[in-house]
Structure formats: C-alpha cells, structure tokens
Amino acid sequence: ELSIQVCLEEEYEFRQVDLPGLRFCCPQVEFNDKPDSLFFNDGVRRIDFILVYEDEDKKEFEKRHTFQRHKASLMEMGMELEATKSVIDDKLLFVKVHMPWDVQCTYAEVLHIKLPIQLNDQSLRPSPLRFFSCITKRFYPNEDLITKEAEFFTAPFEKDRLDLFYVRDKDVFFTASMRSRMAFYILSRAPYEIRGKIKKFGITKLLDGGVYKAAYPLHDCRFNVTSKEESCPNERFLLYEEWAHPKSFYKMQPLNLIRKYYGEKIGIYFAWLGFYTRMLALAAVVGLSCFIYGYKTQETSTWSKEVCSPDIGGNIVMCPQCDRECNYWKLNSTCEASKKLCIFDNFGTLVFAVFMSIWVTLFLEFWKRYQAELEYTWDTVEFLEQEEPPRPEYEAKCIHERKNPVTGVKELVPHTACERCVRVSIGIGTVLFWILLILASIVAIIVYRLAAFFAFSAKLRAQDLKELEPLKEYVTPQMATSVTASLISFVVIMILNILYERVNTNIPLEGGWPSRGSGLPLGKIPERGGTVWSQWAVCYCDPGGCLIELTTQLSIIMGGKAIWNNIQEVLLPWVKNLILRHCTRGASEAAIPRWEQDYRLQPLPKLGLFYEYLEMVIQFGFVTLFVASFPLAPILALVNNVFEIRVDAWKITTQFRRIVPEKAQDIGAWQPILQGIAILAVATNAMIIAFTSDMIPRLVYYWSFSVYPYGDHSNHTMQGYINSSLSVFNIDDFSNYSKPLMTPYNITTCRYRDFRYGPGHPRQYEYTIYYWHVIAAKMAFIIVVEHIVYLTKFILSYVIPDVPYAVREQIKREKYLTQVVLHETNLKLVTKLARMDEDIRPYSYTHDYKVF
C-alpha cells in the first residue's frame, strides 16, 4: 500500500509518495507568464504530454488516491512531472509530463522507431513535370516556409549503438511526434492498481473513469500567430497557412510536414484522400463529356422525338396508372421527361461505365505504388508485421491462461473459448438485427413509392385541376414520387447512421440504397381467357425508360450526404469551441498558457479517422457502383473532395487538440473494402445497363426488328421503337374495381409499357418473341461485358507492379547498409572480446593450475 503525504515547502507544494526504497515528488509551480512556452518552468525540460486533473469534490478520496498512484507509477517508469494550476479555473490542475533522454532512448528501442544512420546517396526518379516547374511550383506549398528536409537511410533504434546513428542534437533527435507517441505508450501502460492477477492500467480507463479530464500532446503554437519562443518550429502555423487555410485550396498538400506533426496515420489518410481526388479529375472529365454528349443529342434522339411528336405520342392513349382515380393520358405528356432521360440513357453511358471499371483498377494499382513510396519515405515498411505493439486495453483483459500451439508456452488471453463464443454470437445477432432493420426500411420506402405514385398520378393526371396545368409538362407522377422517396431515403440513412454510432461500434452498415426503378410488373398480368386487369401490372416508369429515377435518387442522396457532412464537420466543432470560450472568459488568449489553450479545444472522437474513411468509401461506392446511371457522380465527388480536404485540415488544425501520433503502414482494412467495391462495380453497372436502362431493348430493336418493315437488312433505323415497346390493352377487360371513373367515349384500347401480345391474338397478353430476344440479349450483355472487363482488370493488375523499381532499389540499399553497419559493429565487438579473452587466458590457466 502507498502512503501519501502532502507537504509544503516555501512557495512549492510537494505531493510525496513513499514506496519501498523509492521517493518521488511532483512539484506544483505557478504559471511563469510565458504563454508560448513548451517547457517546464525551468525552460529546459520540454513538455511531452499534458494530463488534466479536476478536483471537483474533496471527498472523492478514491479518485485522488488513484491519481496519486498513477503519478507515482509514471515517475517510477522514469517520467518527470510538474503541476500548474489553471489561470481560469482554480479546480483544474495541469500535470506536465517530460521524458528524460535515457527514457526516450529506452522506449524508442521498445517501439522500434527508425532513425537516420546515413544520408541517402540515392534519389527517386525525377518527375517529368520538373521541366514545367515555373508553372507547377505555384501549386505547391511555399518552399521558403516549408523547406525540404534531407533524406536519410534509417534503421530501428538501438540504445547500445547510439554512436551509429546520425545524432546532431539530442534535443531534436527525437521529433515532437515521436516523443508524444512514446509518452502515450508509457501512459497507456503505467499501472494504477494491482490486485493479484488483475492489473489495472491505461490512461484511457482513467479518462473514462473521470480521474483525468483530458490527456493530449501540445500544439507548438497558435494556428494564426507564430510563437515568440525561439526554439519553436511553428509547424502548426505553417500547416494552417499552406494547407488548412481556404486560400490554399488549389495547392498540393505538404504531406511530409503533416506526417511529421500528426503522425503517419493522419498523413496516410490525407495522402490517400489527395490521391483519390487527383484520380477523380480524369473520371470527372470523361463523365462530363458523356453528359454533354447526352445533352446535345437529346433533341435528335429518335425515341424522344416520337414521344414528343403530336402525330405519334399525341395519338397514343396510355392506360391509367392507378385504380379508378387515375384517367387515361397522352404519351406526349412525358415529352420533357423523355428528353431528360436521353441525357443519361445513351450509348455514351455504356462507354463511360466500361471506362470507370478500368479507372477503378488503375486507381487501386497506382495507389499501391504511391503507398509503397510513402511506406519507404516514412519508415513504415513491414511495420504491421513486426513493430505494432498490442493495445493496452487488450493487455488489461488478458487474465486467462492458454497454451500457445506454436511456441508451446502458456500465455494470457482475454477470453476463454466459451466466453468468445458468447461474444461472437451476440455480435452476429446484433448485426443481423440491423440488417433486418435496413430491409424493413427499404420495404417501407417501396410501399411509399407505390402509394405516392398512385396519389400523384390521381392528382397530376386529373383533368379538372386547372391550377396544376402549367406543371404537368415538367412534374410527372414518376418525378414527384422519385424526388420525395429519395428525400425520405436520405433522412432514413441519416437516422440509421446516428443509431449505429450510438449502439454499434463495429463497421456501420449503410441504411438504404437507390431503388432499382426498373419496369418489372408488380402483380398478375391478365391471362388469356378474360382475367380482369390488375393496375399493379402497369409500370410506373416513363415510357422512355426508368434510368432517370435512379439518377434522381442518386443525385439527391449523394449530394445531400456531402452537404450535410461538410456542414456538420465545420459547424459542430466551431460552435462547441465558441460556447466553451464564452463560458470560460476571464483572460485574453495571449495570457493563457499553451496547455490551457489546447484544453479549450475539442478532443478527437474515439474512433478517430473511422468516420472520415467511411464517408469517402461510401462516396467511392456511389462513384463506381452506380456510375452507369449517373455520369456526373465523379465531378460531384471531385468538387466535394476539394472542400473535404481543406475542411478536414482546418478542423484538426484549428478546432481540435493535437492528435496523438500513431504509426500506420497503409489505409488498413479499407484497402480490401475498396477492392471488393471495384469488383462489385463491374456487375452492378452491367446490370443497371441491362435491366434499368433501355439500351439493350433499343439495340435489339435496331439490329433485329427495325429492318422487318422495310425488308432490307442494310437499313437499320430506330423509327417505330416507341410503338413496338408499348403493348395494347382492351379497356373492356378492366374489372369494376380497376376501371377508371371517367372513360372517353372514343377509345377502345390503351397502351402500356411491356412486350405482350394484344387483344384478339391467340396468345393474348402473353410475352412476345421480342421480349425473349431482349432477355437473352441482356444476359449475354452481362456475361460478355463482365468477362471482358474482368480480364482487362486482371491484366492491368498483373502488369503494374505494386512497388516502383526505384523504391525497391532503395529498400535493398537501406537493408544492405543496416546489415553492414551491424556487421562491422558486431565484428568489432567480437574482436574486442577475443583480445580480452587472450589477455585473461594465461592468468586463468595459472590460477586453475595452482588451485588444482
């Protein structure tokens, strides 16, 4: 048990902790009126971490006891502490943590941190853009502010071989992010209670238990003002000026400085986001070209002309789109919708879908190469396999023994086999519940679409509502239903996301997706023999096709999520910080010490970059999975990402406390997720073109049926396609329940979108041969396109190496140098020991002889 004493000595307050054979004290000092200082009051020892303790109730002895035990444990591990009271709130106590040089060396070796051993005598292949440096330099950060650092070959640090490393100055040998990472490693493993086999440790548990209010490394200065301290590098200010400030939106990111200041995990995220955005530029150009092509050809499209023609579309009477309340309507009333559909549903869409399937492969392959360069430059090669330490939360739960089948040694594990089965079962049950909730939401939206479609049809097709007459040309029942259903889908997705965050800490499943919008009949089709007509069989798509509905839903959901996420990311932390500063007013910003300024910022969420990656991966899914229906998706994603990079940069630089640096070799589990999306995108786009678009029926008509009326197979034309895609229904076959309330006296038949034999045919209302030709063509199209694209993707993946040749050579060079250095050191050590053995051996023999 620890005995705690509080003693006063002159102006200092010492909290003294007596342990067997040890004596520790943590002085509490007054603020020295140096708000920009990053050091203890002596101006020598640098602050590596800050712990914030709030003594809310003097009677909470257990918290104060735990606080003292944890401080004693930290000092026993070699850390030096200094406490300072808040200048605003007397209850707050800021504990400054410093690691002496010997402790830094020890934990640098424990964490296998790579440090320079020799200047890099090789260089990567120069960029071909160097010839245009006079132009491209304007798109890079200012080199006068962010200077390029020298490149070194590195090796894992070894304390006993310090003389082999390139040490110019001990104060800057370990960067601030390295020291913060080492300090957090110690804080995460410093015990505060030991009872038998149960050992409690970790700063995370102390934060959750309320012992500490916060724990964070320090920003080196204010983001908009440089520090007055001469030794301060002002890296935060440089990041804000050249990266996070809106005026720098067009500049490339200073990735090396981001990595140096925030660590590799943050650096790799922004590197991936920047690379993804640059690759989107190519896809956006091609997608915009396809959109312009569709826009220019909408007036010349044959099927669009037929729909709009008063002689063709104006003479075709369409069947009602709901029971009783809906009336008959003319085909040319959907003229505008048919023109809009031609913008997206054209042959350029097929080309763009194939292009995007190739693009996504190139994106993933070139990212692997770029990632390999970053791995080498940032010293994270083979990090995950060799250097990643176990999480302290995992270590704390390891109380059960199990024999390792590989080593044969007993080791501690967190759960028994039975407990693991129970936890897995609960996890699977929870995931299944959310999947069922998603399916229920989708079914509810489909039911709404049907009900809303019938309601809008009854209103917008009503001849007696004169006030809606100006809108009928632009607002169709299909468009009104699609827009409202898309808005409801967007709201459902947002609500489910919030619920996932509250309930489930696993990967959230995105609730809802765009409905297929295809023209499959819903219900029974009247069979030959006089079966009554069921209105559920009428397709609710426009006669020109169904793709416009999927396009509408994608644009609303994708655009809505992007706008909502950016507003949320900007406003929420800014408003929280504004309220906090308003509630804690009492001193000017220039009079508040650095550690207290950072405490008033927002802490990084527990899941860190998880939701940032999730947002971008969902966007990546929209861009690739449904691009056949929405060629403008890449350009919307490009515009969003240009803002997303600066919003994220502004947020972590100005509104959040400094993030604890973490190592990361790559983007982790998101890489196989992206690869899975890329594979799935080929199938989804092929099926969208086959089943949602009208491209295949048009092609079948163009190559097979359009020549029959003319008898010359050399003359292919799209004339007559609209008439061939509409089947005929006898209005006398309506049941009393389905029959419209108002029936014009001069019509006996109406048309609906399908390929069936008309009344009077021996196979009345059965599928025509044209239908089976279309189905066969759709299946053949899916198989052929998938195989061609997958083969192309496989060839590209094979011929593009994951690691550039120059990087491979540098990795080999670094390994060689490391082996040479270690070999020479070991050789010198062996030689020295051999000489010592030769000097001692004669005396040993004589001594042994005399004893004998």
From TrEMBL:
Cellular compartments annotated: Cell membrane; Membrane
Which Gene Ontology cellular component terms are annotated?
A: plasma membrane
Pfam families, from UniProt?
A: Anoct_dimer (PF16178), Anoctamin (PF04547)
Occurrences of domain Anoctamin dimerisation (ranges): 39-255
Q: How does it sit in the membrane?
A: Multi-pass membrane protein
The Anoctamin transmembrane domain extends over 258-505, 536-814
An annotated GO BP = calcium activated phosphatidylcholine scrambling
Q: Which GO terms describe its molecular function?
A: chloride channel activity; protein dimerization activity
Keyword set for this entry? Cell membrane, Glycoprotein, Membrane, Transmembrane, Transmembrane helix
Instruction: Give the residue spans that cross the bilayer.
Output: 269-295, 347-367, 432-458, 479-500, 616-639, 673-693, 769-791
Its family remark reads:
Belongs to the anoctamin family.
What's this protein's name? Anoctamin
